[in-house]
Amino acid sequence: MNLVDRLTADMKTAMKSKDKLALSVIRMMRSEMKYAEISKGNPLTDDEIIDVLSRECKKRRDSIEEYVKADREDVATQLQQEVEIISAYLPEQLSKEEVESIIDKAIKETNVSSIKEMGKLMQAVMPQVKGKADGKLVNQLVKEKLS
């Protein structure tokens, strides 16, 4: 079952069980996917759907940080619940150690040795971790390795 079918089935389940939050989040995700599909002009592949879901998850994570700073725990809690629902449709996330091993391997392959060449290293690493690791984490680990 592809992601679109899974989202549709889960939306029906959420309707039947009257789970308003899950229903709302799934509808938002389907809307974002439809918008991306219209922008592209073709049906989305599973990788492109994962990109859309990852982008939405990242938006919410960033918003959580801002709401916590503004002392709005109620909104931050709801956004965290939304992130958990969206994350269920994303591939399993890589651990910090797995990301570090990918970075180490890329450093050996690209012969990057200074922070000035960080872009070259990121180009080698990001396709391998796309959708499986947070970009902030990857960026932070790459900086640590090159420092």
TrEMBL record:
Gene3D superfamilies: 1.10.10.410, Uncharacterised protein YqeY/AIM41 PF09424, N-terminal domain (1.10.1510.10)
SUPFAM superfamilies hit by this protein: GatB/YqeY motif
GO molecular function: carbon-nitrogen ligase activity, with glutamine as amido-N-donor
Domain of life: Bacteria
Identification of the protein by name: GatB/YqeY domain-containing protein
Organism listed in the record: Alkalicella caledoniensis
